[in-house]
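Our consortium's second objective concerns turning raw sequence data into structural hypotheses that experimental partners can test. To show how far this objective has progressed, the report includes one record in full. It was chosen at random from the queue rather than selected for favorable results. The single chain below, 110 residues long, was entered without modification.
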Amino acid sequence: MRLLNCSLFRWTLERAGEVSQLDVQGRLTLDQAAIARTAVLNGTGIGFFIEKDVAEDIAAGRLIRLLDKWTPPRPGFSLFYPGRCNASAGFTAFLAMARDTAAKEAAICR
């Protein structure tokens, strides 16, 4: 996966407290998860996805998990932003929505 700043996304794998980061090389590098998913479904290679984005494909047998022992469950999502910034009303509303969504998902998982 190529990030917006043109750098490559490093795959972070974790097992029993050991963390490993991989700089994955390949002939095809994409910057959109949906297109990467389609490429993987078409047999082009492997991908590193958010579980939610491929859960139906895994359940239907279209995709299989690789390195299962190196991918612990990660509840929720992370959002990083400068804490000192003067946040706009839109950004503040987005943060409130993200926090609310995370709280609802955490309640469902309990």
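The partners drew two points from this record. The CA atoms of residues 58 and 65 lie 7 Å apart. Helices lie at 33-41, 51-59, 89-109. Both points have been shared with the crystallography group to help prioritize constructs.
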